[in-house]
TrEMBL record:
Protein species of origin: Nocardioides hankookensis
Name listed for the protein in its UniProt record: Precorrin-8X methylmutase
Pfam families reported in the protein's UniProt record: CbiC (PF02570)
EC number: 5.4.99.61
Keyword presence, Repressor: no
Keywords: Cobalamin biosynthesis, Isomerase
Gene Ontology molecular functions: precorrin-8X methylmutase activity
Source species taxonomy: Bacteria, Bacillati, Actinomycetota, Actinomycetes, Propionibacteriales
Length: 218
């Protein structure tokens, strides 16, 4: 293998890229409204999206960071809506070799989705049930997965320790995240969460949030 002749000027030192990125974010983002223990979470979510104004739309439950960290240190599983989210989680940052699950490809999922008349991602969330109590949830793609999770909890299902709820897009994304943000007020069920109001979100952002919650270091 031969490295091609370098024709452009760019930074190609991986660790230096990270250091410069985080310094840029801290210079440009308005982090003063973010709770101190959630600063690194906000920085990583901005890093994963490339948008410093993301901070204006972040909603962070006051107990989110401590609840998620405690659960992860105790070995809680991480449940994701899409394989993309699972793949973005850095195993080496997880404090207790935490298992990461996405059930989208489980053979039961297509039939469940057809029978219930819903998406595969929402149907796959039902397969979380035996693992959901005290788990850390990361939803980065599918609004229907987030709605389905909230419906399971309202139906008396197990409660996760913390929810990263960042589905992206135009249909149902903003609405599902509003439902998460107002879940405690609307239903009297206190669920530590982080979300981003509006259409923004995505699998990379959800993975970044978990990576921040997993480890303090940047
Ligand atoms: C409506 C859906 C949306 N998907 C979006 C964006 C992206 N999705 C990608 C991929 C590869 C996958 N998306 C599925 C989850 C698939 N996407 C949907 C659904 C049709 C319904 C979800 C919902 O509305 O709640 C969903 C299929 C389902 O039945 O649940 C995926 C499972 C489809 C598939 O390949 O089978 C698949 C996830 C695979 C995995 O990781 O495990 C994109 C990479 C597509 C692309 O850009 O090429 C992209 C990734 C975005 C991200 O950051 O996650 C939207 C925009 C979120 C859209 C929902 C909202 C809208 O307004 O359209």
């Amino acid at each position: 293998m031969r490295r091609p002749r370098k024709a452009y000027t760019y930074v190609d030192d991986g660790p230096a890229i990270y250091v410069d990125s985080f310094a840029t974010i801290r210079r440009e983002a308005r982090l003063d409204g973010v709770p101190t223990d959630a600063e690194k979470l906000a920085v990583r979510m901005i890093h994963g999206s490339g948008q410093v104004d993301l901070v204006d739309d972040l909603v962070i439950h006051p107990e989110l960071v401590s609840a998620a960290r405690t659960a992860l240190m105790l070995g809680a599983p991480i449940l994701t809506d899409a394989r993309m989210v699972a793949m973005g989680i850095t195993a080496g940052r997880l404090p207790a070799d935490n298992p990461v699950h996405c059930f989208l490809t489980d053979p039961q999922v297509p039939d469940l989705a057809t029978t219930w008349g819903t998406t595969r991602t929402a149907a796959a969330v039902s397969l979380w049930e035996p693992l959901l109590d005290g788990a850390v949830v990361a939803i980065g793609n599918a609004p229907t997965a987030l709605f389905h999770l909230l419906e399971m909890i309202l139906d008396g299902g197990p409660r996760p320790a913390a929810v990263v709820g960042c589905p992206v897009g135009f249909i149902g994304a903003a609405e599902s995240k509003e439902a998460l943000a107002s879940f405690g007020t609307d239903h009297g069920i206190d669920l530590p969460f982080v979300t981003v109001r509006g259409r923004r979100g995505g699998s990379a952002m959800a993975s970044s949030a978990i990576n921040a919650l997993a480890q303090e270091a940047e």
